């Protein structure tokens, strides 16, 4: 399994590559001495006053650029071998930082049949071995058995000792000849290499097979998959583990095996087993491997699991039977009408004169800024905040772009506002909506008000030169002068001007407005500028998505005359107040059946571990999450005796994020106007309109 050429010649050539001086120039474009110089330069920089990889990197840039002109792969590979042999962790890390894995050629064995990882493992250099494993280094493919590694190490030691003996004899016989200095250097090099191989052989002989992995946990992650996580063996006396084996079977004695997976990528000690049969019981075990072979396996906890999902429970009736089909039919009707409109609009645009289009564009370029509102009078307005980092896009008059919707607003304006917020999902369809609403327009005040909102949005799109106006802020800004300002917010990717405007820092815009006037009763525009940082922060936080996992959410509503609001966290307003139960988002059939056993009268406080509970770990995780969530909303556990778990379904939001819901008592889920709210949390919470909350869920998880 090794190269068939003469071992002595192979060792001689390697020694020439590692010699400190070259007696003659090599014919190849790059030399091993260049790799040695690279390693020396790295070592000298690390031994100096430089404390960071960045400094060493920039100081070695000239070396790096010059080496790239020649055979970069060869030099980098040789430099990596020398750094590992010298047990220089800093040099190894810098090489990994500076060069790609292709340039370093980590997994190609050298002329001795070894890779850098082999040398690190055999010399028991755990830090270097772990560093190499983390970036994907592999052991030499030549060592197909444990015995082959032992034989090969013995051969390397024997060849090195033989070469030392020959060079020593030549040095004695030649005396002080012209080549004595060169031969002396070669002799020292071979003596050093003989000691290295002896140390590698001793490391191999003293090593033993690894112990079993620890904390092997088995999780049900879907109806057809299981996931196992584990940690390294506890023992530090054995050699470095280089791979793991995950085995599974439907038999407790693992005979026969249903399958196995070899894990040689140790970046994450987590393995997903897919393609399993729903409801079938599977046993799983994990074993570790090092240069002395496979260690004993460790069975998982729990010992077995059956792939399943909460939807697999027998007798469960879908809550939304027929709803999906009905919604799809409605969507098809809307798509058909929309497609007909697009075709008609396309034909109109093709027939329109090019001259008229150009003249309109020029007129829009020079006169658009005059159509923005400068001062607010009594009425309803629409504004857009386009921002990039701490810069806002403003008009030439240093104003936030604002247009008028109407010179007055009715008492039902909040319902119209909540309807308008949904347009943030379909800004491109404003013209189509205006046309369809115009067809059905009647004397209805609500329809007329919404038509004016669409007209204002279309006007703002034309003035700005972009359809996307961003997301609507969750509440309009009101003042005592009778003004109401609807705000949309959009973050852009660069300082690009959509219209004849300019970019200005937020602080500068605020200071200019403050210097112009400081009214005793600020207008809605003043309030907008004062609170603009809060608005931008809300916009950024509302787009944050939860990492995958199963969460426990707290559902608390409050109602007013014209809307219902949901309690959310200010730092993450797109989801309910929550705590994480675990990383696995799937709720298995057994876990869901246990949740169903909780009667409506059973309190959260009374949940306790029972000997006959089949899901002990899930019960513990859920109980811990309940306590943490109650603490978050500032509610003592004894006051939550009537709280319940929602047992109709698991809320699956998408992107492997699922929610179980914790509900107050039936009469306290939604607090009516004038009703005392016994569950008032501390600051850091927000009551968000229900429609805005729904839009946040759609934006983040679809």
Automatic annotation (TrEMBL):
<dbReference type="InterPro" id="IPR039269">
    <property type="entry name" value="ANKFN1"/>
</dbReference>
<dbReference type="GO" id="GO:0061172">
    <property type="term" value="P:regulation of establishment of bipolar cell polarity"/>
</dbReference>
<dbReference type="InterPro" id="IPR036770">
    <property type="entry name" value="Ankyrin_rpt-contain_sf"/>
</dbReference>
<feature type="domain" description="Fibronectin type-III">
    <location>
        <begin position="212"/>
        <end position="308"/>
    </location>
</feature>
<feature type="repeat" description="ANK">
    <location>
        <begin position="112"/>
        <end position="137"/>
    </location>
</feature>
<dbReference type="GO" id="GO:0005819">
    <property type="term" value="C:spindle"/>
</dbReference>
<protein>
    <submittedName>
        <fullName>ANKF1 protein</fullName>
    </submittedName>
</protein>
<dbReference type="InterPro" id="IPR003961">
    <property type="entry name" value="FN3_dom"/>
</dbReference>
<dbReference type="Pfam" id="PF13637">
    <property type="entry name" value="Ank_4"/>
</dbReference>
<dbReference type="InterPro" id="IPR013783">
    <property type="entry name" value="Ig-like_fold"/>
</dbReference>
<dbReference type="GO" id="GO:0000132">
    <property type="term" value="P:establishment of mitotic spindle orientation"/>
</dbReference>
<dbReference type="InterPro" id="IPR002110">
    <property type="entry name" value="Ankyrin_rpt"/>
</dbReference>
<dbReference type="InterPro" id="IPR036116">
    <property type="entry name" value="FN3_sf"/>
</dbReference>
<dbReference type="Pfam" id="PF00041">
    <property type="entry name" value="fn3"/>
</dbReference>
<keyword id="KW-0040">ANK repeat</keyword>
């Amino acid at each position: 399994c090794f190269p068939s050429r003469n071992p002595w010649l192979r060792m001689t050539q390697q020694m020439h590559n590692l010699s400190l001086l070259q007696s003659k120039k090599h014919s190849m474009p790059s030399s091993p001495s260049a790799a040695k110089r690279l390693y020396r330069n790295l070592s000298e920089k690390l031994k100096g006053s430089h404390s960071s990889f960045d400094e060493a990197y920039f100081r070695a840039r000239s070396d790096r650029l010059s080496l790239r002109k020649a055979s970069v792969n060869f030099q980098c590979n040789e430099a990596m071998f020398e750094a590992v042999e010298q047990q220089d962790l800093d040099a190894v890390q810098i090489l990994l930082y500076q060069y790609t894995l292709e340039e370093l050629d980590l997994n190609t064995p050298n002329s001795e049949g070894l890779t850098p990882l082999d040398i690190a493992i055999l010399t028991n250099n755990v830090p270097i071995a772990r560093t190499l494993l983390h970036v994907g280094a592999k052991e030499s493919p030549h060592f197909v058995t444990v015995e082959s590694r032992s034989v090969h190490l013995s051969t390397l030691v024997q060849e090195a000792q033989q070469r030392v003996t020959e060079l020593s004899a030549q040095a004695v016989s030649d005396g002080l000849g012209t080549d004595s200095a060169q031969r002396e250097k070669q002799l020292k090099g071979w003596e050093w290499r003989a000691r290295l191989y002896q140390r590698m052989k001793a490391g191999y002989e003293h090593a033993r097979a690894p112990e079993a992995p620890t904390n092997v946990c088995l999780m049900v992650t879907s109806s057809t998959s299981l996931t196992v996580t584990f940690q390294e063996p506890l023992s530090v006396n054995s050699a470095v583990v280089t791979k793991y084996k995950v085995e599974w079977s439907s038999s407790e004695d693992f005979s026969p095996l249903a399958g196995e997976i070899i894990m040689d990528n140790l970046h994450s000690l987590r393995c997903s087993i897919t393609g399993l049969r729903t409801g079938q019981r599977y046993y799983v075990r994990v074993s570790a491997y090092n240069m002395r072979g496979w260690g004993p396996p460790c069975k998982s906890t729990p010992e077995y699991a059956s792939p399943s999902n909460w939807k697999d429970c027998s007798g469960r009736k879908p809550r939304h039977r027929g709803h999906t089909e009905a919604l799809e039919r409605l969507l098809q009707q809307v798509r058909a009408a929309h497609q007909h409109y697009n075709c008609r609009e396309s034909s109109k645009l093709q027939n329109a004169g090019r001259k008229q289009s150009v003249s309109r564009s020029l007129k829009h370029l020079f006169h658009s800024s005059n159509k923005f509102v400068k001062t607010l009078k009594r009425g309803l307005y629409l504004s857009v905040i386009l921002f990039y980092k701490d810069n806002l896009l403003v008009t030439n008059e240093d104003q936030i772009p604002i247009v008028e919707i109407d010179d007055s607003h009715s008492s039902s304006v909040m319902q119209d506002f909540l309807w308008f917020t949904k347009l943030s999902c379909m800004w491109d369809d404003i013209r189509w909506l205006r046309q369809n609403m115009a067809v059905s327009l009647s004397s209805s005040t609500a329809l007329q008000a919404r038509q004016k909102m669409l007209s204002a949005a279309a006007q703002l799109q034309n003035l700005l030169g972009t359809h996307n106006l961003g997301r609507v802020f969750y509440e309009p800004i009101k003042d005592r002068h009778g003004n109401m300002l609807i705000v949309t917010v959009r973050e852009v990717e660069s300082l690009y001007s959509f219209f004849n405007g300019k970019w200005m820092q937020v602080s500068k815009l605020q200071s200019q407005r403050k210097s112009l006037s400081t009214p005793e009763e600020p207008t809605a525009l003043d309030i907008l500028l004062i609170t603009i940082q809060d608005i931008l922060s809300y916009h950024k936080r509302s787009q944050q998505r939860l990492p995958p996992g199963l969460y426990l959410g707290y559902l608390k509503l409050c109602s007013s005359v014209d809307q219902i609001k949901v309690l959310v966290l200010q730092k993450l307003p797109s989801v309910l107040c929550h705590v994480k139960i675990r990383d696995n988002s799937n709720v298995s059939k057994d876990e869901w059946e246990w949740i169903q056993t909780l009667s409506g009268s059973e309190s959260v406080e009374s949940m306790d571990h029972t000997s006959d509970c089949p899901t002990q770990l899930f019960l513990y995780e859920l109980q811990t999450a309940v306590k943490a969530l109650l603490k978050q909303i500032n509610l003592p556990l004894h006051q939550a005796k009537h709280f319940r778990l929602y047992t109709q379904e698991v809320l699956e939001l998408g992107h492997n994020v699922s929610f179980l819901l914790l509900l107050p008592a039936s009469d306290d889920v939604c607090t009516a106007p004038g009703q005392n709210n016994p569950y008032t949390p501390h600051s850091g919470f927000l009551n968000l309109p229900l429609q805005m909350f729904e839009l946040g869920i759609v934006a983040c998880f679809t």
